[in-house]
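It is worth pausing here to work through a concrete case rather than discussing structure prediction in the abstract. The textbook approach is simple: state the sequence, then state the predicted structure, then interpret. We follow exactly that order.
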Amino acid sequence: MNLAEHAGTALKRGDVAPDFELPCAEAEGTVSLAEYRRRGTVLLLMLRGLYCPFCRRGIGLLRPTCDALKKTGVPLLGVVIASPARARQYFRHFPACFPAVAAPDRALHRAYGLPEMERTRQMKEDTERRAREILRERGLDAPPGQAGWVFHEQDGFQMTDEDDAEWKRPLQSVGYFLIGPDGVIRWARVEPRMFLLPKAEEILPFV
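Step two, the predicted structure:
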């Protein structure tokens, strides 16, 4: 499949989701979207690179909805921008509540129409504010202008050259897509920042 043919504005309800087969992010082998669709509806989580501390934190916070959806037979499948080797290195130490695949570049994100944004001064200030709020929730503080870096290192995460290269690119937005067995998107949400899933009962009517 030529993913470039699907690039454009973010896909929405009623659009056909591009299929893919990518390396598994936790172990050897590959995973395909078509394989999941053959079993029923699947919720696809399009994430950004591992460098993002808000995304790493957000993956853990997805667990309540993740578990609730799986009980109803709706599995989750994540896509993270990383090489297979880097993704496996991370997820073997910090497993998610859902399986994920490693996308070595942003081609699949472009296929789903997820935009990139240049990091503005306002975005950097907002990131610093959000990081400081999270640190305070944990009873921690940071020197002025350093909350983002302190938060970034809270889980013992160590940046690699690959992570650093992805971080220096424009900010990749994230998106969640509920995809039916026919490949048609039944529910979607796209945001510039990592966000929590709605409660399961808000998604299930679209299954």
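Step three, interpretation. The first strand starts at residue 21 and ends at 23. Confidence is low (pLDDT under 50) at residues 1-7.
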